[in-house]
Design brief:
Rossmann fold; 34% strand; Immunoglobulin-like; 4 domains; elongated; six-stranded antiparallel beta sheet; 641 residues
Length: 641
């Protein structure tokens, strides 16, 4: 295993003639240099994520040029168990964990009128009822700068929603001017102004400005054309100002969400947003959403033709609706989301969102040298899956001057986070042995994940906390094998180990395990845990224990005994692999050999070639020199790479 320390050094461990890995110099985390990772949603016609796609079924183009897709992985909402036997007593895994989704309902109060938004908020309350109990939910108006508090108390979020109302209002006008007309007038479009003046004032703009007509009226101007232009400009100014305020508030909300690890879903309720492409560049907002891993779904509230405060129908009602919806569509598209029209409290759009957020892909591709210039690059992701609809961010940027970036701050945030991250499958186990200091125990903490090859460096951080809540060991290191073992010298007692990992593609995982650091055995004869490790190679006698999985064709079974120097074992250690049906799949024996004063070791290397993949119980019966042999066991999952 190629192991390089990041930020801390891992001490060398001598263990009964075997050694544990030495620390190496710091390394550079290459995520974002070699790989660009994007969240991609692939849906069928009903909005259900399509699973089972492989890297060769995706195509990525940057500014129209193809890029090599290195790997892809589907991340389901509901995590799949590691094996049919369920959670194990000898290791912990985040593969059994459903951490729930982070969902925030944001209310664009500036663009929702007080009465028209009530039905939509009722629909949002029903949407919350449809979420899983594990999902963490929040609700907030866009302009609220207070910290966002996600909670599993869905009823409290519904009560919060009920207190929200729209604050949108129309510009009071004397003339009936449509929104699209007002924007054109605000942009100085004289032909559109003339069209409105003809309708509202009875004559064309040219007639009102005709010198002969003005002379006939003693140079008194009719105020109608001027008032039409002023009202049109006022409507345009308010629409664009409110759009800018809402977009700025949304950007600030995304920035607050960036502090939370993992993927987030933001459901925005709005009656419309005027965000013309020539005036509003949403690429920065999209980049912020990508960095924060926020997907934005927008529910466009279907507005009635007549406003409660105005009995007139806009002369450009269809164009106005399209204009408002277009701004929302651009907003959703730049953040990997979608726009849906919400009529009243109709649950269909909410159900569609629920289906869509039930899973997504992480797709990693290799950036070209020309991509590393600090410019924003267009990205297009497609798939060969028939009938599939793909959603991904539209752009990315790699700084022109690359600097070594450490994943340790991200590891620290994952370790502090109260929830678990499950994008990167992660397993952790602890093995307890006698330390050279007889008052202490030597605990080997092993973390492992699935290794997908091609530069998939994985940075792993860990914390060991004692029963008093004090951190007694911590560190971080980078491995290319997908497995990391670190030693800790601890007094006997109960501990919590928390492990977090990030791979070179940006996948994140965290897991925790409570364990009791204590030796087994009876009387004066104490026993270590049963260890399952990789076979020893001829270069160095290094024990590399597994946490749960054995992907190779051979493993080493190892156990130690600690007893007074006069003790003598009365037989061999019997090892066995027991299958799911309690049938014996393998048996082997090993004799205890002295390894220092008061220490004996028994190890045997066994072949797994003839054993079918699946979960097994590795068992050892250890002779104590008196009474029946003492049993030890540990779960082993055999896989085939």
């Amino acid at each position: 295993m190629n192991l390089r320390a990041v930020g801390v050094a891992c001490a060398c461990l001598a263990l009964t003639g075997f050694a544990v890995l030495h620390a190496q110099p710091p390394t550079v985390f290459r995520s974002g240099v070699d790989l660009i990772t994007v969240d991609v949603t692939v849906l069928d016609g009903n909005g259900t994520p399509i699973e089972g796609l492989t890297a060769d079924q995706f195509e990525v183009k940057v500014d129209g040029a193809s890029r090599r897709v290195l790997w892809s992985e589907f991340v389901p909402h509901r995590s799949r168990p590691l094996d049919p036997s369920g959670p194990s007593e000898s290791f912990s895994s985040n593969e059994h964990v459903d951490p729930g989704r982070l969902v925030i309902i944001a209310v664009d109060q500036l663009h929702i009128r007080r009465v028209e938004g009530l039905a939509a908020l009722r629909g949002a309350s029903n949407f919350i009822d449809s979420l899983d109990a594990r999902d963490l939910v929040a609700a907030a108006p866009l302009g609220d700068g207070r910290p966002i508090e996600f909670t599993s108390d869905h009823a409290a979020v519904k009560r919060s929603l009920q207190r929200l109302t729209g604050s949108g209002s129309l510009v009071p006008t004397h003339y009936n001017i449509g929104l699209s007309e007002a924007l054109a007038i605000g942009d100085g479009n004289r032909s559109r102004l003339d069209m409105v003046v003809r309708r509202e004032c009875g004559q064309s703009l040219g007639v009102f400005e005709n010198p002969a007509r003005l002379a006939e009226n003693n140079w008194m101007r009719d105020p109608c054309p001027v008032q039409v232009e002023q009202e049109g400009r006022a409507i345009a100014q308010q629409a664009r100002m409110e759009a800018r305020l809402s977009l700025e508030a949304l950007t600030r909300m995304i920035a607050r969400l960036a502090a939370l690890e993992g993927s987030k879903t933001l459901v925005l309720l709005s009656e419309g947003l005027v965000a013309e492409p020539q005036l509003f560049d949403l690429s920065a907002l999209g980049a912020a959403a990508q960095a924060a891993r926020v997907t934005i779904y927008v529910l466009h509230l279907d507005s009635p033709l007549l406003d409660a405060s105005d009995s007139r129908i806009s002369p450009t009602v269809n164009a106005d609706r399209h204009l408002r919806a277009d701004g929302l569509s651009r907003l959703a598209g730049t953040a990997r989301g979608a726009l849906f029209t919400l009529v009243g409290s109709n649950p269909s759009p909410f159900r569609r969102i629920l289906r869509e957020i039930s899973g997504y892909y992480l797709v990693a591709f290799e950036a070209g040298d020309s991509d590393r210039d600090g410019r924003r690059r267009r990205i297009a992701v497609s798939t060969r899956a028939p009938g599939a609809m793909v959603r991904a961010r539209p752009s990315f940027t790699i700084p022109a001057t690359l600097t070594a970036s450490s994943p340790v701050p991200l590891i620290e945030r994952l370790l502090r986070s109260p929830g678990l991250s499950t994008e990167l499958p992660l397993r952790v186990a602890a093995h307890t042995f006698q330390d050279a200091d007889q008052e202490q125990l030597r605990v080997l903490v092993t973390a492992e994940t699935d290794h997908a090859g091609y530069g998939r460096e994985i940075t792993v951080g860990y914390l060991v906390v004692n029963a008093a809540g004090v951190i007694v060991a911590s560190g971080a290191a980078t491995t290319e094998s997908g497995r990391l073992t670190v030693p800790a010298s601890l007094p006997p007692g109960r501990y919590l180990v928390r492990v977090a990992a990030v791979d070179a593609g940006g996948r994140q995982g965290s897991v925790e395990r409570r364990f009791n650091a204590v030796l087994g055995g009876v009387g004066a004869v104490r026993l270590s845990d049963l260890m399952i490790a990789d076979p020893l190679n001829g270069e160095s006698p290094v024990l590399r224990p597994t946490a749960a999985r054995a992907a190779g064709e051979r493993v080493l079974l190892h156990v130690e005994a600690y007893a007074p120097p006069a003790w003598s074992p009365d037989g061999d250690v019997e090892f066995e692999l027991i299958g799911p049906s309690s049938a014996s799949a393998l048996t082997a024996t090993a004799a205890f050999r002295p390894s220092g004063v008061g220490r004996w070791t028994a190890s045997v290397e066994v072949s797994l070639e003839a054993i079918a993949p699946g979960p097994y119980l590795a068992a050892a019966r250890v002779p104590l020199g008196f009474g029946a042999p003492h049993p030890l066991s540990r779960t082993l999952v055999i896989t085939r790479r």
